[in-house]
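## retry 2 of 3
previous attempt timed out at serialization; input unchanged, resubmitting
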Amino acid sequence: SFPMHHAVPSTNYAWLPHNMDPSLPTPPEYQDMSVQPLGDMKAKHEHFMNGCSDYYESMGDRCWSNERDRITMSLRQPQSMRNYTEFGFTKIRAPDHVFSLIQEFWQANKDKQKLERWPAGNIYTNHWESPTYLVSV
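## retry succeeded, writing output
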């Protein structure tokens, strides 16, 4: 996946010899590096970030600033949150009458979606390659 706690995704791929055979020593460059089972996420992350920078042109540096802020928040936010249960959030089914209201609203308004506007440099969605839309409530 993209980096959650570091600026660069791990290159310690699951199929490297030291990860396949525990009897082999871990090379120094992979010491304390998490195992990356998803392949070359570094290249995908660079493509994503460069796409943001290219899209925002003169304000493209904001993409990198927002990415640093996102990583910092990922490190800081969990321990500051007090609304988690011991096992995380519990999924519950919405009451039928509430779900009916939501469905009714969606059916009446789904064709009224508008292009979602994002602040320059926002990296939370890939809106430069795949625009996002919303229906106002």
